[in-house]
Amino acid sequence: MAYPTQLGFQDAASPIMEELLHFHDHALMVVFLISAMVLYIITLMMTTKLSHTNTMDAQAIEMIWTVLPAIILILIALPSLRILYLMDEINSPHLTIKTLGHQWYWNYEYTDYKDMAFDSYMTPMENLEKGSFRLLDVDHRMVVPMDSPIRVLVSAEDVLHSWAVPALGIKTDAIPGRLNQTTFITTRPGLFYGQCSEICGSNHSFMPIVIESAPLNHFENWTTLTMSS
């Protein structure tokens, strides 16, 4: 989860988020180099005593400021397209979960298990346990097995919502009457927090998302207890 005064992204908990962090650093270095070059040119132009008032054209400089930006855009576009294709890649998921947005809570349905569905509401402040996070914890978490490809089908019952978990690099719109899908793999056990990222009404900020990543044997024990209760 995020922490106070945080400037960067959250620590990556999925391969896609690791790729996004690498791309962010790559693009930021390009921005720094461009900014430094522009600042140097501006400083040079302001301090030089030379002037060329009779120059009508400069083929060399025109070639440079046409070709150089094209090369820079290619260096940014190619890694970006690679990540976009990786995010759309869904091969033989081990588990499929249907996520339905409501005003103002989430409903999760484990389609591979019969009659396994539950609502996930934000935990009120008066019911928070010690160490829990205000406005982020829920009464029922979405539990998934670690190191397994998970497919999530996202839709909404009433208005537009958005199912987003920053640590996993996920942000998928929940649109009424439309079924979107995303996929992720958690690389370590833990709790990963998210929130609805689409302004969906007066309680928009009170429908958090909590994903609990657990080893496979713990996940199987959880499914057994959930289905028997």
N-end to C-end Cα span: 30 Å
The share of residues in helices is 25-40%
Number of helices: 3
Q: Tell me the β content.
A: 25-35%
> What is the class of the largest domain in the CATH system?
Mainly Beta
| Physical arrangement of strands within the biggest beta sheet | 3-2-1-5-8
Number of domains: 2
CATH architecture classification name of the largest domain: Sandwich
Q: Going by CATH, what is the homologous superfamily of the largest domain?
A: Cupredoxins -  blue copper proteins
> What best-fitting shape do the alpha-carbon axes yield?
elongated
Q: From the alpha carbons, calculate the radius of gyration and give it in angstroms.
A: 24 Å
- CATH fold-level assignment of the largest domain: Immunoglobulin-like
Q: Estimate the mean pLDDT confidence.
A: 89
| Structural class by secondary-structure content | alpha+beta
Task: Walk me through the structure.
The protein folds into two domains: 65 residues, no CATH class; 133 residues, Sandwich (Immunoglobulin-like), CATH 2.60.40.420. The mean pLDDT is 89. 21% of the residues are buried. The protein is an alpha+beta fold and 229 residues long. It has three helices and ten strands. β1 and β2 form a beta hairpin. 33% of the residues lie in helices and 25% in strands. It starts with 14 loop residues before the first helix and ends with a helix. Strands 3-2-1-5-8 form a five-stranded mixed β-sheet, with no helix packed on it. Strands 4-10-9-6-7 form a five-stranded mixed β-sheet.
